[in-house]
Write a structure and sequence with these properties.
The chain has 202 residues and is of the alpha+beta class. It is built from nine helices and four strands. The protein has two domains: 77 residues, Glutaredoxin; 110 residues, Up-down Bundle (Glutathione S-transferase Yfyf (Class Pi), Chain A, domain 2), CATH 1.20.1050.10. Strand 3 and strand 4 form a beta hairpin.
Length: 202
């Protein structure tokens, strides 16, 4: 198995955390990629017309994308451990995955506006809107933090990767002070070997 990889991508990290938790990480080859929303990596485009990472290649050379599909594929390969199969636990985990992914989407869009868009073209209202999504997402996670406990599933993994991305790219945001229950949960979860093995870097 192979994955087009960027060491800074929180979505790639989510897939790799899942792989580590399932004992599959050593079976996945990391392929370097230079995915960018403006200048696309044509090597990635050949497998994924969206040109995004993560893009995953199975042992049969079938291309899978995006992180949600890849994570579920890996879980199926390992016999189904991180995606609850039925009932309220399934819908809770999937909804938490969506919330964590949505937080990441907003964080990335705000970052693109400042890191990639020329200064004279930046839209402050856009940045403000994305940062409001961050705040409301964190507020919802804070409401749920006491119930997360020691759960390890696709919901908590996505939360962990999203919060890790804030630490990585938004070090001055100071989210811990406003969301102390979330911070306490994250500090415990982030100590997991799977999280430590996949820490992002530029």
């Amino acid at each position: 198995m192979k994955i087009y990889f960027s060491p800074a991508s929180p979505y790639v990290r989510k897939c790799l955390v899942v792989a580590h938790e399932l004992g599959l990480a050593d079976r996945i080859e990391k392929l370097p990629a230079a995915a960018n929303p403006v200048t696309r990596d044509q090597t990635v485009v050949a497998s994924n017309p969206l040109g995004k990472v993560p893009t995953f290649l199975t042992d049969d050379n079938e291309a899978l994308y995006d992180s949600r599909v890849i994570c579920e594929y890996l879980d199926a390969e390992a016999g189904g451990k991180l995606f609850p199969r039925e009932g309220s636990a399934r819908w809770q985990a999937l909804t938490q995955q969506s919330l964590g992914d949505g937080l990441l989407d907003a964080a990335l869009l705000a970052r693109y506006e400042t890191a990639l868009r020329p200064a004279e073209l930046r839209w402050e209202g856009w940045i403000k809107g994305q940062m409001e999504k961050l705040a409301s997402s964190l507020a919802r996670i804070e409401q749920q933090a006491d119930s997360l406990g020691d759960r390890v599933d696709i919901g908590t993994i996505t939360f962990g990767c999203a919060l890790g991305y804030l630490d990585f790219r938004y070090a001055d945001y100071g989210w811990r002070a406003s969301y102390p229950k979330t911070a306490a949960w994250f500090d415990r979860f982030n100590a997991r070997p799977s999280m430590q093995a996949t820490l992002p870097h530029a």
